[in-house]
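Comment thread on ticket #2218

A.B. wrote:
> Attaching the input chain for the structure job we discussed in standup.
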Amino acid sequence: MDKLKRKAVNSENKETVSCPPSFARLIWTEISHDKFALASFILLVIIIITVFAGASFVDPGTSTKINLSQINKAPSGKFILGTDSAGRDMVGQLFLGARNSFLIAFGVTVFCGVIGILVGMAAGFFAGMVDNIIMRILDFLAMLPNLMIIIVIISLIPKYNVTTFILVMTAFNWNGIARLVRAKTLQQSNLDYVQASKTLGTSNLAIMFREVLPNIASIIIVNLTLNLAGNMGLETGLTFLGFGLPFSTPSLGTLISYASVPENMQNRPWQWIPAALLIVVMMLCINFVGQAIKRAADAKQRVT
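C.D. wrote:
> Ran it. Output below, let me know if you need it in another format.
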Protein backbone atom coordinates (compact mmCIF):
# COMPACT_ATOMS: atom_id res chain seq x y z
CA MET A 1 0.00 0.00 0.00
CA ASP A 2 2.82 2.39 0.89
CA LYS A 3 4.41 1.81 -2.50
CA LEU A 4 1.11 2.48 -4.24
CA LYS A 5 0.63 5.70 -2.26
CA ARG A 6 4.14 6.84 -3.11
CA LYS A 7 3.56 6.16 -6.78
CA ALA A 8 0.29 8.10 -6.66
CA VAL A 9 1.99 11.03 -4.91
CA ASN A 10 4.86 11.01 -7.40
CA SER A 11 2.47 10.96 -10.35
CA GLU A 12 0.52 13.86 -8.86
CA ASN A 13 3.73 15.82 -8.34
CA LYS A 14 4.75 15.20 -11.94
CA GLU A 15 1.40 16.46 -13.14
CA THR A 16 1.60 19.60 -10.99
CA VAL A 17 5.06 20.51 -12.25
CA SER A 18 4.53 23.01 -15.03
CA CYS A 19 6.90 23.18 -17.96
CA PRO A 20 7.76 26.60 -19.38
CA PRO A 21 5.60 27.40 -22.41
CA SER A 22 7.16 27.32 -25.85
CA PHE A 23 7.71 30.51 -27.81
CA ALA A 24 4.98 29.49 -30.26
CA ARG A 25 2.54 29.18 -27.37
CA LEU A 26 3.59 32.59 -26.04
CA ILE A 27 2.99 34.08 -29.48
CA TRP A 28 -0.48 32.57 -29.69
CA THR A 29 -1.27 33.80 -26.17
CA GLU A 30 -0.31 37.34 -27.13
CA ILE A 31 -2.26 37.21 -30.38
CA SER A 32 -5.35 35.74 -28.74
CA HIS A 33 -5.35 38.45 -26.03
CA ASP A 34 -5.02 41.26 -28.57
CA LYS A 35 -8.19 41.75 -30.62
CA PHE A 36 -6.39 43.72 -33.35
CA ALA A 37 -3.62 41.14 -33.62
CA LEU A 38 -6.09 38.24 -33.68
CA ALA A 39 -8.28 39.88 -36.32
CA SER A 40 -5.16 40.78 -38.33
CA PHE A 41 -3.84 37.22 -38.13
CA ILE A 42 -7.14 35.72 -39.29
CA LEU A 43 -7.53 38.30 -42.07
CA LEU A 44 -3.93 37.82 -43.23
CA VAL A 45 -4.35 34.04 -43.41
CA ILE A 46 -7.59 34.45 -45.39
CA ILE A 47 -5.94 36.89 -47.81
CA ILE A 48 -2.89 34.68 -48.38
CA ILE A 49 -4.99 31.54 -48.94
CA THR A 50 -7.36 33.41 -51.27
CA VAL A 51 -4.52 34.99 -53.25
CA PHE A 52 -2.58 31.75 -53.76
CA ALA A 53 -5.72 29.74 -54.48
CA GLY A 54 -6.98 32.36 -56.94
CA ALA A 55 -3.59 32.68 -58.63
CA SER A 56 -3.45 28.92 -59.15
CA PHE A 57 -6.55 29.16 -61.38
CA VAL A 58 -5.13 32.03 -63.45
CA ASP A 59 -3.10 31.16 -66.53
CA PRO A 60 -0.10 33.55 -66.54
CA GLY A 61 0.29 33.25 -70.31
CA THR A 62 -3.35 34.12 -71.03
CA SER A 63 -3.61 36.83 -68.38
CA THR A 64 -0.64 38.76 -69.78
CA LYS A 65 -1.87 38.78 -73.40
CA ILE A 66 -3.06 42.08 -74.82
CA ASN A 67 -6.72 42.13 -75.84
CA LEU A 68 -7.49 45.31 -77.79
CA SER A 69 -11.23 44.62 -77.80
CA GLN A 70 -11.43 44.75 -73.98
CA ILE A 71 -9.28 47.80 -73.19
CA ASN A 72 -10.27 49.82 -70.09
CA LYS A 73 -13.59 48.07 -69.53
CA ALA A 74 -15.47 49.13 -66.40
CA PRO A 75 -16.43 46.49 -63.79
CA SER A 76 -19.25 44.27 -65.01
CA GLY A 77 -20.59 40.76 -64.71
CA LYS A 78 -17.89 39.48 -67.06
CA PHE A 79 -15.05 41.49 -65.53
CA ILE A 80 -15.69 41.96 -61.82
CA LEU A 81 -12.88 44.51 -61.42
CA GLY A 82 -12.81 45.66 -65.03
CA THR A 83 -9.81 45.53 -67.35
CA ASP A 84 -6.61 47.52 -67.71
CA SER A 85 -5.12 49.48 -70.61
CA ALA A 86 -4.00 46.22 -72.22
CA GLY A 87 -7.42 44.56 -71.96
CA ARG A 88 -6.36 42.18 -69.21
CA ASP A 89 -8.78 41.06 -66.49
CA MET A 90 -7.95 42.95 -63.29
CA VAL A 91 -9.05 40.07 -61.04
CA GLY A 92 -6.38 37.79 -62.49
CA GLN A 93 -3.85 40.62 -62.37
CA LEU A 94 -4.67 41.24 -58.72
CA PHE A 95 -4.26 37.58 -57.76
CA LEU A 96 -0.97 37.20 -59.63
CA GLY A 97 0.30 40.60 -58.46
CA ALA A 98 -0.44 39.94 -54.79
CA ARG A 99 1.18 36.52 -55.00
CA ASN A 100 4.31 37.92 -56.67
CA SER A 101 4.59 40.77 -54.17
CA PHE A 102 4.22 38.45 -51.20
CA LEU A 103 6.70 35.92 -52.62
CA ILE A 104 9.23 38.68 -53.29
CA ALA A 105 8.88 40.10 -49.78
CA PHE A 106 8.99 36.62 -48.22
CA GLY A 107 11.99 35.58 -50.32
CA VAL A 108 13.94 38.74 -49.49
CA THR A 109 13.12 38.32 -45.79
CA VAL A 110 14.26 34.68 -45.72
CA PHE A 111 17.48 35.27 -47.65
CA CYS A 112 18.34 38.36 -45.61
CA GLY A 113 17.65 36.35 -42.45
CA VAL A 114 19.95 33.50 -43.50
CA ILE A 115 22.80 35.82 -44.50
CA GLY A 116 22.34 38.04 -41.47
CA ILE A 117 22.29 35.08 -39.06
CA LEU A 118 25.45 33.53 -40.53
CA VAL A 119 27.40 36.79 -40.67
CA GLY A 120 26.14 38.14 -37.36
CA MET A 121 26.78 34.93 -35.44
CA ALA A 122 30.29 34.63 -36.89
CA ALA A 123 31.09 38.20 -35.84
CA GLY A 124 29.59 37.89 -32.37
CA PHE A 125 30.87 34.42 -31.52
CA PHE A 126 34.45 34.63 -32.74
CA ALA A 127 34.85 38.36 -31.93
CA GLY A 128 38.37 39.79 -32.17
CA MET A 129 39.76 40.16 -35.67
CA VAL A 130 36.80 38.40 -37.30
CA ASP A 131 34.39 40.82 -35.65
CA ASN A 132 36.46 43.85 -36.65
CA ILE A 133 36.62 42.81 -40.31
CA ILE A 134 32.90 42.01 -40.53
CA MET A 135 31.89 45.21 -38.75
CA ARG A 136 33.98 47.36 -41.09
CA ILE A 137 32.23 45.70 -44.03
CA LEU A 138 28.84 46.34 -42.40
CA ASP A 139 29.80 49.97 -41.71
CA PHE A 140 30.74 50.42 -45.36
CA LEU A 141 27.45 48.90 -46.55
CA ALA A 142 25.52 51.11 -44.13
CA MET A 143 26.99 54.24 -45.73
CA LEU A 144 25.88 53.27 -49.23
CA PRO A 145 22.63 54.70 -50.66
CA ASN A 146 21.07 51.26 -51.01
CA LEU A 147 17.88 52.41 -52.72
CA MET A 148 19.78 54.29 -55.40
CA ILE A 149 22.14 51.37 -55.99
CA ILE A 150 19.20 48.96 -56.36
CA ILE A 151 17.64 51.31 -58.90
CA VAL A 152 20.90 51.55 -60.87
CA ILE A 153 21.45 47.78 -60.87
CA ILE A 154 17.89 47.09 -62.01
CA SER A 155 18.25 49.70 -64.75
CA LEU A 156 21.39 47.99 -66.03
CA ILE A 157 19.89 44.50 -66.15
CA PRO A 158 18.29 44.02 -69.60
CA LYS A 159 15.94 41.20 -68.59
CA TYR A 160 14.99 40.44 -65.03
CA ASN A 161 12.25 38.52 -63.26
CA VAL A 162 11.03 37.80 -59.74
CA THR A 163 14.13 35.78 -58.83
CA THR A 164 16.50 38.49 -60.06
CA PHE A 165 14.57 41.14 -58.18
CA ILE A 166 14.74 39.10 -54.96
CA LEU A 167 18.51 38.65 -55.27
CA VAL A 168 19.13 42.36 -55.95
CA MET A 169 17.01 43.45 -52.98
CA THR A 170 18.63 40.83 -50.72
CA ALA A 171 22.15 41.99 -51.56
CA PHE A 172 21.55 45.35 -49.85
CA ASN A 173 19.05 44.53 -47.09
CA TRP A 174 20.78 42.03 -44.76
CA ASN A 175 22.85 44.60 -42.89
CA GLY A 176 20.33 45.31 -40.14
CA ILE A 177 19.61 41.71 -39.16
CA ALA A 178 23.36 40.96 -39.15
CA ARG A 179 23.99 43.76 -36.63
CA LEU A 180 21.13 42.57 -34.43
CA VAL A 181 22.33 38.94 -34.44
CA ARG A 182 25.90 40.05 -33.72
CA ALA A 183 24.83 42.06 -30.67
CA LYS A 184 22.73 39.22 -29.24
CA THR A 185 25.44 36.62 -29.96
CA LEU A 186 28.02 38.75 -28.14
CA GLN A 187 25.77 38.75 -25.08
CA GLN A 188 25.22 35.00 -25.19
CA SER A 189 28.91 34.22 -25.80
CA ASN A 190 29.85 35.61 -22.39
CA LEU A 191 27.35 33.47 -20.48
CA ASP A 192 28.33 30.42 -18.44
CA TYR A 193 26.66 27.78 -20.61
CA VAL A 194 28.75 28.79 -23.64
CA GLN A 195 31.97 28.79 -21.61
CA ALA A 196 31.07 25.38 -20.16
CA SER A 197 30.45 23.97 -23.65
CA LYS A 198 33.82 25.26 -24.81
CA THR A 199 35.49 23.67 -21.78
CA LEU A 200 33.85 20.33 -22.58
CA GLY A 201 35.30 20.49 -26.09
CA THR A 202 32.06 21.09 -28.00
CA SER A 203 32.73 22.36 -31.52
CA ASN A 204 32.12 26.02 -32.30
CA LEU A 205 29.47 25.24 -34.92
CA ALA A 206 27.57 23.05 -32.47
CA ILE A 207 27.64 25.79 -29.83
CA MET A 208 26.55 28.44 -32.31
CA PHE A 209 23.66 26.61 -33.92
CA ARG A 210 22.50 24.20 -31.19
CA GLU A 211 22.91 26.42 -28.13
CA VAL A 212 23.27 30.11 -29.01
CA LEU A 213 20.87 30.30 -31.96
CA PRO A 214 17.83 28.84 -30.11
CA ASN A 215 18.31 31.42 -27.34
CA ILE A 216 18.21 34.36 -29.75
CA ALA A 217 15.65 32.87 -32.15
CA SER A 218 12.74 34.82 -30.66
CA ILE A 219 14.42 38.18 -31.35
CA ILE A 220 15.24 37.08 -34.90
CA ILE A 221 11.64 35.98 -35.55
CA VAL A 222 10.34 39.34 -34.35
CA ASN A 223 12.74 41.27 -36.57
CA LEU A 224 12.03 39.17 -39.66
CA THR A 225 8.27 39.45 -39.18
CA LEU A 226 8.42 43.24 -39.06
CA ASN A 227 10.86 43.29 -41.98
CA LEU A 228 8.36 41.32 -44.08
CA ALA A 229 5.99 44.29 -44.17
CA GLY A 230 8.86 46.65 -44.95
CA ASN A 231 10.04 44.50 -47.85
CA MET A 232 6.53 44.47 -49.31
CA GLY A 233 6.48 48.26 -49.15
CA LEU A 234 9.94 48.47 -50.74
CA GLU A 235 8.96 46.22 -53.64
CA THR A 236 5.75 48.16 -54.20
CA GLY A 237 7.55 51.50 -54.08
CA LEU A 238 10.29 50.46 -56.50
CA THR A 239 7.81 48.97 -58.95
CA PHE A 240 5.58 52.05 -58.71
CA LEU A 241 8.58 54.22 -59.63
CA GLY A 242 9.31 52.00 -62.62
CA PHE A 243 12.37 50.25 -61.16
CA GLY A 244 10.73 47.04 -60.03
CA LEU A 245 9.17 44.21 -61.95
CA PRO A 246 8.53 44.73 -65.68
CA PHE A 247 5.04 45.61 -66.88
CA SER A 248 4.52 42.08 -68.21
CA THR A 249 4.97 40.63 -64.69
CA PRO A 250 2.10 41.75 -62.47
CA SER A 251 2.66 42.85 -58.88
CA LEU A 252 0.83 45.16 -56.51
CA GLY A 253 3.35 47.84 -57.46
CA THR A 254 2.62 47.55 -61.19
CA LEU A 255 -1.12 47.75 -60.50
CA ILE A 256 -0.78 50.79 -58.26
CA SER A 257 1.39 52.46 -60.90
CA TYR A 258 -1.73 52.79 -63.07
CA ALA A 259 -2.60 55.72 -60.81
CA SER A 260 0.39 57.63 -62.23
CA VAL A 261 -1.71 58.24 -65.36
CA PRO A 262 -4.07 61.18 -64.60
CA GLU A 263 -6.93 59.70 -66.61
CA ASN A 264 -6.70 56.42 -64.72
CA MET A 265 -6.53 58.25 -61.43
CA GLN A 266 -9.75 60.17 -62.12
CA ASN A 267 -11.83 57.92 -64.32
CA ARG A 268 -10.60 54.34 -63.78
CA PRO A 269 -10.24 53.73 -60.04
CA TRP A 270 -10.88 49.99 -60.49
CA GLN A 271 -7.40 49.65 -61.98
CA TRP A 272 -5.44 50.77 -58.91
CA ILE A 273 -7.66 51.11 -55.81
CA PRO A 274 -8.03 47.32 -55.13
CA ALA A 275 -4.24 46.85 -55.23
CA ALA A 276 -3.65 49.92 -53.06
CA LEU A 277 -6.16 48.74 -50.46
CA LEU A 278 -4.74 45.22 -50.48
CA ILE A 279 -1.14 46.31 -49.89
CA VAL A 280 -2.22 48.61 -47.05
CA VAL A 281 -4.32 45.90 -45.38
CA MET A 282 -1.58 43.27 -45.70
CA MET A 283 1.11 45.58 -44.29
CA LEU A 284 -1.11 46.60 -41.38
CA CYS A 285 -1.96 42.98 -40.60
CA ILE A 286 1.70 41.95 -40.65
CA ASN A 287 2.61 44.88 -38.40
CA PHE A 288 -0.12 44.10 -35.84
CA VAL A 289 0.93 40.44 -35.74
CA GLY A 290 4.58 41.47 -35.56
CA GLN A 291 3.90 43.70 -32.57
CA ALA A 292 2.22 40.79 -30.80
CA ILE A 293 5.25 38.58 -31.51
CA LYS A 294 7.49 41.36 -30.22
CA ARG A 295 5.59 41.46 -26.94
CA ALA A 296 5.82 37.66 -26.68
CA ALA A 297 9.61 37.91 -26.92
CA ASP A 298 9.76 40.51 -24.10
CA ALA A 299 8.90 39.18 -20.64
CA LYS A 300 8.16 42.71 -19.40
CA GLN A 301 5.45 43.29 -22.02
CA ARG A 302 4.13 39.75 -22.14
CA VAL A 303 0.58 38.91 -21.07
CA THR A 304 0.69 37.06 -17.76
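A.B. wrote:
> Thanks. Noting for the ticket: The CA atoms of residues 25 and 70 lie 51 Å apart.
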